[in-house]
Amino acid sequence: MARTFDELVAEAEAAPVEGWDFSWLDGRAVEERPPWGYQRLMSERLAGVQAALDLQTGGGEVLAGAERMPPVMVATEGWPPNVAEATRLLHPLGAAVVADADQPPLPFAAEAFDLVVSRHPVTVHWAEIARVLCPGGSYLSQQVGPASVFELVEFFLGPQPEEVRRSRHPEDARRAAEAAGLEVVDLRTAELHTEFRDVGAVVYFLRKVIWMVPGFTVAEHRDRLRDLHARIEAEGPFTATTTRFLIEARKPG
């Protein structure tokens, strides 16, 4: 028997959203992955350095997938529930977790790290990244690109202005990196697709990825959620376009 709107929404509203593990969505949402394999690239880079920093680690799940940690491995995170989750996961692997509000300056000395990595950072403080990198060190990051999942964003918020749709453009990242004194050695983009198969998957996603629909709550958006549920029931999964880019930049040595 098909589950009702109220059942789907109540289940998703009660689900914990700490950490950066999306396994709750298994079978309910499908996200196409970029072709470059960020976790594999990150793992390869970590294996070749002495000291590394993972910025905005979330619950530490991505970093924990590295095959080997360098002798000095530090991760930062700003959201207290994620700090606790990342500490639980990463400390046994030899990584220290530092609670940091993600506002400059970073709580590290200049030239402290050979490598800085970050998957899906909300903000990127390029001058601070350049400061904490050793000469010859590198920054590797997979980031959310412009207008990502905007079909879903605009379903709730309506049409967004062009400057909002264009934000997080990879060429802007290139210019910002170069302005901070870094040399961009790799920049790749991918346009992918995400399917939401029930309204509960949307509720969970928007509760977890809080910047997509700022201030999202079930109570505030219940009417639109009900419309979305009816649409999925009638037409099948709600499909959105996901954009990602990979950027690697090096500090001159």
What this model shows, in words?
With 253 residues, the protein is an alpha/beta fold. The protein has a single domain, classed as Rossmann fold, CATH 3.40.50. The protein has ten helices and eight strands. It has helices spanning 5-14, 38-46, 61-64, 80-90, 126-132, 150-157, 162-166, 170-179, 199-208, 222-235; strands at 29-31, 51-54, 72-77, 96-99, 113-119, 133-144, 183-196, 238-250. An eight-stranded mixed sheet has the order 1-7-8-6-5-2-3-4, with helices on both faces. The termini are far apart. One of its GO terms (biological process) is methylation. InterPro entries: 23S_rRNA_MeTrnsfrase_RlmA, Methyltransf_11, SAM-dependent_MTases_sf.
Which SSEs are present, and which pair or pack?
Elements: H1 5-14, E1 29-31, H2 38-46, E2 51-54, H3 61-64, E3 72-77, H4 80-90, E4 96-99, E5 113-119, H5 126-132, E6 133-144, H6 150-157, H7 162-166, H8 170-179, E7 183-196, H9 199-208, H10 222-235, E8 238-250
Parallel strand pairs: 2-3, 2-5, 3-4, 5-6
Antiparallel strand pairs: 1-7, 6-8, 7-8
Helix pairs in contact: 1-9
How much of the residues is beta strand, in percent? 15-25%
Q: Alpha-carbon distance between the termini?
A: 63 Å
CATH class: Alpha Beta
CATH topology (fold) name: Rossmann fold
The Cα radius of gyration reads: 19 Å
DSSP E strands, number:
8
Q: How many structural units, i.e. domains?
A: 1
- Overall pLDDT metric: 96
Would you list the SSEs in sequence order as H and E?
A: HEHEHEHEEHEHHHEHHE
Helical element count?
10
For CATH, the homologous superfamily is named as Vaccinia Virus protein VP39
Overall, the morphology is: globular
Helix content: 25-40%
Flag low-confidence runs: none
Strand line-up in the sheet with most strands: 1-7-8-6-5-2-3-4
Keywords: Methyltransferase, Transferase
InterPro entries: 23S_rRNA_MeTrnsfrase_RlmA, Methyltransf_11, SAM-dependent_MTases_sf
Pfam families: Methyltransf_11
Domain Methyltransferase type: 53-139
